[in-house]
Each structure stands twice: as structure tokens, then as C-alpha cells.
């Protein structure tokens, strides 16, 4: 059938999506919620399962050196374009069942729609399931898309370790992947587009009564790791004036992050979500205290300024507290802007389907941000209940999902 004839007849197989969501819920470590961390057993089971779904849909399936799955739908005849879509199946610890999964299932559903309706298309559609989108285990997010776009180095594979001391490369190879990053690379221009459907992970769409969020840009994180080094001692015998307690400057730094964010809080966010104290014993004065400070913004200048300010303040705080310190920027990603033609296309498609849209920036990072290095990217958000995400009560309705999938299908077919 001709695309123009069928485009508004497309029905989404909501039962299939619901069934898959139910099945995927089982691939988890102990609850509450979903714990499907990349390169662990539950993730590997989900990985196998999704691969099987793709093979059932007769996609040409390839798994690369870090465990990204790429399933290609290649119609016969001359191809005008290559487009890609997808998301991730890994989760944070005690996360939800929708983050990432919705984008993966919707990508497979596109292929099912094309086959069901025998739609004639002249573009290759690749379904991509990225490995390790969440930075949970190795403190590095979007690993799969970084490998695809050439931003992951061999040095990182060998040096980044989880809390048990296992390297990234070991974890990858234990799952049966080669760990060869060269074979993950996809050349710039190979795809014309990458479009990702994702839950919003925030409360805006729901509170404004909108169906579809048309993402305008993806804000990027920067992270600074700071370690203060003082002197340990007996908590009962060392007088207060003699102490070089490493935790005090760390506490001041955390409050300082909050203070410097205040004047720019409409443009950026700042968080200290990780701290570590050594020896972490109630009766010993802390000798070493480490934190990871994170800033996110869609505005690179604002973010750069925040990094500079906090680094200066860390120096001053350490001098004041008579401790040594080491601070370095461990992550510094660039925010990306979605091309106008993609924003307008998604908006038009969704409006034609009768959905209420809202242009919205993404505060969270996504694989789409990295795919921007090799092709033009778009992102579609659907509302999630109460804005909850990365927690067991993360939820979105099948009605929301269907609206998102319809918008995605139409966007992919028309782009
Ligand atoms: Zn996600």
C-alpha cells in the first residue's frame, strides 16, 4: 500500500505492547521496582528476549562489541535513506518499567506496523537497543551510544571499575561481547536521522494536560569529582582546634553547590548525589571525603561558569579548613539542540493525529544526544504519572504510550 493512503489508518497493537511490558517486568533483580543493570544477569535475559523479538520480525540483527543490538529492516529496491530509532532496556537500581523500554518496544512496533499494513517504503529502518544508558554501575551513562559515535575509549574500558573493582571490559566480556570498540563505530552520515521516544521523567506534560512533548534540546551533565584529604584521629581525644576533618569542607562544598545554583536555577540544576567518607567509622575523624558534583544545563556558558565557580570555591574551602584536595572534571558533555525541521515535523504529525503538543527541553541525558554526533536527531516525550521516574512508581498509561508510538511511526515514515 502507498504510504499516503495508509498513514492515518495506522493502528498500534496496544495489546502486544502491554504483553511485552508485562514480560519484561520479570527480567529484574530483587525489587522493589525494576533493577536491570547493564551487564548483569537480568539485563542479559532481557537482551536475549528483545533480540528474539527482533529476529521474529525478520530484522537483520547484529550485536556489537559492547552489547548494543541493531536490528535492520531493509526493504527491497533502492533505498533513499537510513533512519534509526530505539532506546535502552537497562534500568537504575529500583527503577521503573517504562524508562527506555517504551522507546525500544515502539521501535519494534514500527516494523510490525509496516509489515501488517504492507506499507511500501524506500528507507532502511534500524532499531537500536543501546547498552548501559544508565550510569548506575560504572558511573558512565550512555555507554552504548558513546561507543557507536566514537566517544568511548579503550583506556576507559580498562580503567573504569564498578564498586567490586571489576573493569568495564571484564563486565562486557563476561557477557560474551568482544569489547572491541572499533566494531561499534557507525560513520557520520550513515543514518539520516535518529528519533527516540521516551517518557518525560518529569511532571510538565501531565500538569499541563499535553499528550506529546516535542523535545527542543537535551541538556548535558558535567561532573566534578572532589576529594578532601585531612587527618584521621580518635574522635574522643583529638581537641577540636587540632583537627583536620575531611568531611567538614565536603559539607561546605555541598551547601556551596546549592548556593551558586540559586541565581541561575531557571537555567541549570546542581546535585551532589554521591559521597564517600573514609574510614566511615563513628569513632574516627574522617581522613578522606569524596563527592561527585553534577551540573546540568541546556546552556553551555552557564554550566561552564558553574564549574569554574565551584572549583574556585573548593580551593578556598580547603585552605580555610587546612586540608588538601583534589578536584577534577570527570564528565563534561555538550548540550544539544534539536534541528528545527525535526521539531516542526514531530509537532505537525502529532497535531494531525489530534494530540496536544508542547515544546520542551530534556533535563535528562539520552542516547539521542550522542547520536547527534553522527546524524540529525529528534525526541518525542510522553507524560508519566506524577513525573515520577527512576523509582518503582514510575508509570505511564497504555493510552499515552499508543499516542507516542503513533507519533513516532508517522514521524519515521514521513521524515
Ligand atoms: Zn531512559
Can you walk me through this structure?
This protein has 415 residues and is of the alpha/beta class. The protein is built from 13 helices and 13 strands. Strands 1, 2, 3, 4, 5, 6, 11, 12 and 13 form a nine-stranded mixed beta sheet that branches. Helix 4 (101-116) crosses helix 13 (398-414). The longest helix is centred in the last third of the chain and has 21 residues, at 300-320. The model has no long low-confidence stretch (mean pLDDT 95). Bound molecules: zinc ion. The site of zinc ion has 5 residues, from loops.
Give the topology.
Blueprint: H1 3-6, H2 14-24, H3 41-56, E1 60-63, E2 69-73, E3 81-88, H4 101-116, E4 123-130, H5 143-148, H6 154-159, H7 168-174, E5 193-199, H8 204-208, E6 212-218, E7 220-229, H9 247-261, E8 268-278, E9 288-297, H10 300-320, E10 324-332, E11 336-337, H11 340-352, E12 357-362, H12 367-371, E13 376-382, H13 398-414
Helix pairs in contact: 4-13, 9-10, 11-13
Bound molecules: zinc ion (ZN).
Zinc ion is lined by residues 88, 99-100, 133, 198.
Amino acid at each position: 500500500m502507498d504510504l499516503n493512503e495508509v498513514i492515518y489508518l495506522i493502528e498500534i497493537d496496544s495489546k502486544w505492547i502491554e504483553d511485552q511490558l508485562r514480560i519484561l517486568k520479570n527480567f529484574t533483580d530483587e525489587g522493589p521496582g525494576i533493577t536491570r543493570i547493564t551487564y548483569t544477569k537480568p539485563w542479559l535475559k532481557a537482551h536475549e528476549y528483545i533480540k528474539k523479538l527482533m529476529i521474529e520480525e525478520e530484522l537483520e540483527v547484529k550485536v556489537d562489541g559492547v552489547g548494543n543490538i541493531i536490528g535492520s529492516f531493509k526493504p527491497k529496491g533502492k533505498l533513499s535513506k537510513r533512519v534509526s530509532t530505539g532506546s535502552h532496556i537497562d534500568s537504575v537500581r529500583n527503577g521503573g518499567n517504562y524508562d527506555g523500554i517504551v522507546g525500544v518496544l515502539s521501535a519494534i512496533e514500527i516494523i510490525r506496523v509496516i509489515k501488517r499494513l504492507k506499507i511500501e517504503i524506500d528507507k532502511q529502518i534500524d532499531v537500536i537497543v543501546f547498552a548501559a544508558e544508565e550510569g548506575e554501575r560504572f558511573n558512565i551513562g550512555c555507554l552504548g551510544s558513546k561507543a557507536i559515535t566514537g566517544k568511548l575509549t579503550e583506556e576507559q574500558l580498562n580503567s573504569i571499575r564498578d564498586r567490586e573493582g571489576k573493569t568495564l571490559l571484564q563486565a562486557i566480556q563476561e557477557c560474551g561481547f568482544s569489547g572491541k570498540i572499533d566494531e561499534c563505530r557507525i560513520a557520520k552520515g550513515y543514518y539520516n536521522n535518529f528519533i527516540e521516544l521516551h517518557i518525560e521523567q518529569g511532571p510538565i506534560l501531565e500538569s499541563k494536560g499535553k499528550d506529546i512533548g516535542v523535545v527542543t534540546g537535551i541538556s548535558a551533565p558535567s561532573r566534578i569529582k572532589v576529594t578532601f584529604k585531612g587527618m584521621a584521629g580518635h574522635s574522643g581525644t583529638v581537641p577540636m582546634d587540632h583537627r583536620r576533618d575531611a568531611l567538614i569542607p565536603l559539607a561546605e562544598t555541598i551547601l556551596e553547590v546549592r548556593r551558586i545554583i540559586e541565581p541561575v536555577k531557571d537555567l541549570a540544576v546542581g546535585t551532589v548525589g554521591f559521597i564517600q567518607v573514609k574510614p566511615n567509622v563513628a569513632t574516627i575523624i574522617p581522613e578522606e571525603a569524596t563527592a561527585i558534583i553534577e551540573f546540568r544545563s541546556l546552556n553551555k556558558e552557564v554550566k561552564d561558569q558553574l564549574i569554574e565557580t565551584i572549583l574556585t570555591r573548593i580551593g578556598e574551602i580547603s585552605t580555610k579548613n587546612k586540608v588538601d584536595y583534589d578536584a577534577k572534571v570527570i564528565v563534561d558533555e555538550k548540550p544539544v539542540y534539536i534541528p528545527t525541521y525535526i521539531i516542526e515535523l514531530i509537532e505537525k504529525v502529532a497535531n494531525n493525529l489530534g494530540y496536544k503538543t508542547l515544546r520542551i527541553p530534556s533535563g535528562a541525558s539520552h542516547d539521542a544526544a550522542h547520536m547527534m554526533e553522527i546524524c540529525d536527531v529528534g525526541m518525542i516525550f510522553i507524560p508519566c504519572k506524577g513525573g515520577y521516574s527512576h523509582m518503582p512508581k514510575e508509570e505511564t498509561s497504555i493510552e499515552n504510550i499508543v499516542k507516542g508510538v503513533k507519533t513516532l511511526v508517522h514521524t519515521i515514515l514521513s521524515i
